[in-house]
Amino acid sequence: MSNWDNLQTVLAIRRCGSIGAAARSMGLNYSTVNRRLAAYEATLGVKLFESSAEGQACTPAGLRICEAAERMEEELAEAERTVIGADANMEGELRVSMSASLFQMLMAPIFGAFSKRYPDIRITLNFTRDFSDLSKREADIAFRFSNNPPESLVGVRITNCAQSIYASPEYVDANSSPRSRHWIGKKDGARNPSWVRNSSEPFAEIKHNVLDNLAKQHMAVQGMGMTILPCFLGDQDTGLVRLPPAMVFPGRDLWILTHEDIRKTARVRSLLEFSRDRLNSMSDLLEGLTPADGTS
After folding, report:
1. pLDDT digit string (tens) for 127-170?
2. What is the pLDDT along the chain (296 residues), one digit of tens a residue?
3. How far apart are CA 186 and CA 182, in angstroms?
4. Which domain holds residue 273?
5. Parallel, antiparallel, or unpaired for β 182-185 and 227-230?
6. Residue among 144, 132, 195 nearest 165 (CA)
7. Residues 50 and 108 in one domain
8. Which residues contact 110 (CB under 8 A, 6 or more apart)?
């Protein structure tokens, strides 16, 4: 008879494409996962995977096992959501997902105040830019920047987070000509991607290929170039100025999202409402109406 560890192993190999990648995703070593797969195949008397140039490919038997395991996984997740959704206690764990820049620049003091009000709630925080799979309990609440959040999630929209171009004052003074400036940003596989062409600095080239907003912020402070940042990041940094000072343009909407099954849980509802109220009070900062130099 199959146990859940075996089924999780098979699912991980299929989803990751190789035994090594599956082992890393499960926090195990290669030999453990390989041994577990071999023992399970021996028990069933069939091969579940075949090796190929791309990695491990499911056999027909492997596909049937994976489909059954995915149904079991979803049923378990649904049962957990139902139990959690009925929980009215203001204690226990909350799994929260957001970007590191949002936490550092906005959410850390909000979480501090929330923890003082609800000292029996424990927060597990995961930094990611992707949409966590709330239906599978990777997170209870996700703070996300998106103009099109998944329809399977519910929550509240805070506002559109404005952006601007930022650089250090020293960099601006030393590069008064637009053609002498260069970008810190993501190349996206192109020498001149659309975000550069559509900016107020279309002739500047990307010198430093960086995606992470916190990294871009710190590199700009060091005079390494100019970069596009959300105003809640750039306007709070006294080592940066807007370029030009009064310019802002739309970014993405900030959402607080959760799953329908757990939205009424006391812990989830309390953090969602607490964060919504605090973030709404920061609307000027989020919408780029409070630049550090006082220009608006």
Report:
1. 887 765 665 668 899 999 999 888 888 889 999 999 999 999 99
2. 458 888 989 999 999 999 999 988 888 889 999 999 999 999 999 999 998 877 899 999 999 999 998 988 888 877 776 665 555 567 889 999 999 999 999 999 999 999 999 999 999 999 887 765 665 668 899 999 999 888 888 889 999 999 999 999 999 999 988 889 999 999 877 778 889 988 989 989 999 999 999 999 999 999 999 999 999 999 999 999 999 888 899 999 999 999 887 877 888 989 999 999 999 999 999 999 986 554 44
3. 12
4. 92-161+252-286
5. unpaired
6. 195
7. no
8. 274, 275, 278, 279
Looking at the structure, do residues 21 and 76 belong to the same domain, yes or no? yes
The residue among 31, 52, 85 that closes a domain is 85
Give CA–CA dist 252/147, Å, rounded.
Answer: 6
Residue 61 phi/psi, 5-degree rounding, is -65, -40
CATH number (domain holding residue 52): 1.10.10.10
SS (H, E, C) the chain: CCCHHHHHHHHHHHHHCCHHHHHHHHCCCHHHHHHHHHHHHHHHCCCCEEEECCEEEECHHHHHHHHHHHHHHHHHHHHHHHHHHCCCCCCEEEEEEECHHHHHHHHHHHHHHHHHHCCCEEEEEEECCCCCCHHHCCCCEEEEECCCCCCCEEEEEEEECCEEEEECHHHHHHCCCHHHCEEEECCCCCCCCHHHHCCCCCCCEEEEECCCHHHHHHHHHCCCCEEEEEHHHHCCCCCCEECCCCCCECCCEEEEEEEHHHCCCHHHHHHHHHHHHHHHCCHHHHCCCCCCCCCC
* Residues 32 and 66 reside in one and the same domain: yes
CB 100 within 8 A of CB 127: yes
User: Structure tokens of 158?
Assistant: 């805070």
Query: How many residues are listed for the chain in this entry?
Result: 296
